[in-house]
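S1.2 Input.
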Amino acid sequence: MLHVFDGTGKLRGSSPVLLGLAVGDDSVPGIGERKMSDIRPAERTTPAGRFVSEPGRNLQDEDIVWIDYESAVSMHRVRTGNKADRRLQRLATPTVADNRISYGCVNVPAAFYDALVKPVFGVQPALVYVLPETRPAATLFSLTTRTGSRAGQAPAKAP
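S1.3 Output.
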């Protein structure tokens, strides 16, 4: 699922999405420099992490949102050119089991992309969080609870 929040933290909307074919939290090193035909199915992961997105354009001059430019991972409208992929049908099913088909990009329904993704992420850098699948979120995002700090004051460093 993709959840879009505004700058105040208010949920603007949610939508099912398609993700990379392979389960995993990391992109293969150097994958962004390879031809798509050279990427094996087991390498088609959507990387987890905190990313500063950038509006961009792909080789077909379509607007996209770069999630991880170096790994060539973007968020874009679902492409329906290959009918055998059944991408729109996959989005419409009640399970997530069939939502893995992409090379690692986040595929978003076109109407949701145009209404919420493009106005929020398509005009300026924004934060994108992709939750991990194979390890605890705390290991990826350094989630820790800080106690004893005051607003405007950095927490004391451990000895």
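S1.4 Remarks. The longest helix spans residues 110-121.
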